Amino acid sequence: MKPKLLFIYNANSGKMNGYIDAVHKIVSPKTYACNLCDITYGVFTENKAWKKFRTSSKISMEFLHLDEFKKQYASKFGSKYTFPIVLLENKGELELFIATEELNGLKNAEELIQLIVEREEFL
Hints:
single chain, about 120 residues, alpha+beta, four-stranded mixed beta sheet, globular
């Protein structure tokens, strides 16, 4: 099985949660808890540079909201991680690829793309 990157947002799935997140990004962007959401998506649409990278990359990627990750992986990995986070799934094991603190320090999609490209050799 080909290694893949798991992008886990610090937000829950569902339309209502999406609306709440959009309002939060507008009203109080400095207190928004998911920088991964913020740099890959604007208030309503996916960031164009990110979308272009995501759709043209040969890297296998999966995107999960926090509740989806916990449902799929909780029994094996429990509360081992903080969020948002990017993990590398390889042969049924999860490894840290981009830590929460590192994600929170990124300013835009271009910085995220650059970091992934720099670490691509580990995939």
